[in-house]
Amino acid sequence: GSFGTAMQGNATLHLYPHFEPLRQIEGVTDYLTTEISTSKQKRFNLVKFIDTPGLVDGDMQYPFDVNRAILWLGDLADLIFVFFDPIGQALCKRTLNIVEELSNDHSEIMRFYLSKADEAGDESDRQRVLMQIVQELCKRPNLNRTGFEMPTIYVPNMNQKGSSCVNQIEEVCQDIEKTINQTIQNTLNSLERDCDQIATLVEEKLQKNMKTSSENLQARFRGASFGLLGVFIPFLMLTTYLISTQQKVMKDILGENILDTLGIYLGPLARGWKAIPVQYSTYILYFIFGFTLIMLLIARYVSRTKLTLSRKEKRHLSEIREFVQNTVKKKKESLYSDYLKQSVADHDL
User: Fold this and answer.
1) What distance in Å separates the CA atoms of residue 329 and residue 332, rounded to the nearest whole number?
2) What distance lies between CA 40 and its chain's CA centroid?
3) What does residue 304 show for φ and ψ, rounded to 5 degrees?
4) What three-state secondary structure class fits 231?
5) pLDDT reported for residue 228
6) For range 182-186, the mean pLDDT
7) Are 335 and 188 within 8 A, CB to CB?
8) Which of 27, 138, 194, 211 is a Cys-bridge partner for 64, taking CB atoms 3.0 to 4.6 Å apart?
9) Residue 65: which pLDDT band, with cuts at 50, 70 and 90?
10) Long-range contacts from 194-201, C-beta under 8 angstroms, 24+ separation
C-alpha cells in the first residue's frame, strides 16, 4: 500500500496520546517516527506495527534506555513478534535477555520467526540455523516451552531470484487477523458489560434514593410526633397546673363555663397538682419548660434527613439508563459490522 508523510517525535505522540508515557524515557521522542499506510488489504488499517531497534552485543551505546522502552511497549501490545535474522547477530545475549524478560509477563502473546529465511542458504542451512536458535532459547527456562514454533518468513517481492524456501508469512497475517477479531469481540463484549453495569448502577442509585426518601418521610413523621408531644403535653401540664392553683385568674381569662368544662376533663390531673406544696411551684414550671425543651431537641434529632436526588437528577439518571440499554447496547452488532468494513480493500467491495 502507499504511505503518507512520516511524522517525527512530538507529532507521533500527538497522534497516539497513549504513547505519552514514553516521554519519561529520556531521548525516546527524538527517535520516534510514524508512517501511515492507506492500504486496506489484510485489515492493514486496523494494525499498528511498532518496530523497535535491533539489539547487538558489545560496546554499542543507544541514545535512550532501549530496554525500558521495549518493555513498556510490550505491556501495551496485543502481539509481540520476535524476528531472528539468520545473517545477523540473532543470538546475541542482549536480544535474548530482553526477549526472556518480555516472556515473564507476555509469553502467551509472543511469536518467534526466522526472518529473511530465503537468505539462510539451502534447506539444510536453514535447519541448522533454526536448531541453533532453538538450542539457545531452550537454555533459558522462561523460553523453554512446549509446542515451540518458529515459522520461516520472508518478503517475496524482495527475493529477485526466487526461492524454494517455504514462506509462512501468510500464517503471520492470519494470526494478526485473528487477534484483531478477538480484540474487536472483546471490546464489544466489554461494551455490553459496561452498559449492563451502568444500568445496574443507575437502578441501584434510584432504588437507594427511593429508600432514602422513605426513611426521610419516617424521620419527618417521628420529628413531628415528638414535636407535637413536646408542645401538647407541657401545654396540658401547664393548663392543669394553673387551673388547680390559679382558679380566680383562669376564671377571669376563660370564663366560668369553660373552666368548669376543663375541670370535668382535667380534674384528676388538676387535683394531683394540688397535692404538691406551693413552695415547689417554681420547680414545677422549670420542669414543664425543661420537658418541652428536651422533647423539641429529640424531635429535631430524630427528624434529620439524608440528601436525596432532585427530580431533575432522577430524570437524568433514568435517561442514561434508557440510553445505554436501548441505544448503545443495541449498536453492538452494527458496530462490529462497521468496524470490519474499514478493513475491506476497495477491490474487494
Assistant:
1) 6
2) 32
3) -65, 135
4) helix
5) 87
6) 85
7) yes
8) 27
9) very high
10) 194/324, 195/324, 195/325, 195/328, 195/329, 196/329, 198/320, 198/321, 198/324, 199/321, 199/324, 199/325
**C-alpha grid cell, residue 8:** 517525527
Q: Which DSSP string corresponds to 86-131?
A: TTTTTT-HHHHHHHHHHHHHHGGGEEEEETTGGGS-SHHHHHHHHH
Fold entry, domain 50-167 = Rossmann fold (3.40.50)
What is the grid cell recorded at 15? 497522534
Asked whether 20 and 76 are in contact (CB, 8 A), the reply is no
Q: Does residue 325 contact residue 195 with C-beta atoms inside 8 Å?
A: yes
Which cell numbers hold the place of 213? 426518601
Show me where the domains of the chain are located: 1-46, 50-167, 191-348
- The terminus-to-terminus CA distance of the chain in angstroms comes to 17
Across the chain, which distance is largest between two alpha carbons, in Å? 133
Q: How many residues does the chain have?
A: 349
Give the DSSP H or E segment for 244.
helix 169-245
Which amino acid appears at position 326 of this protein? N
Q: Are the CB atoms for 71 and 102 separated by under 8 Å? A: yes
Centre a 10 Å sphere on the Cβ of residue 57 and count the other Cβ atoms it contains.
11
Judge contact between 8 and 33, C-beta under 8 A: yes
Q: Give the burial class of 102: count Cβ atoms within 10 A of its Cβ; 0-12 exposed, 13-18 middle, 19 or more buried.
A: buried
Round the CA-based radius of gyration of the chain to a whole number and report it. 42
Q: Looking at the whole model, is its pTM more than 0.85?
A: no
Sign (positive/negative) of CA torsion 93, 94, 95, 99?
A: positive
Question: Does the structure show a pLDDT above 50 at 347?
Answer: no
Number of H helices, E strands in the chain: 10, 4
Q: Between these two residues, 8 and 73, which has the higher pLDDT value? A: 73
Give the amino acid at 312: K
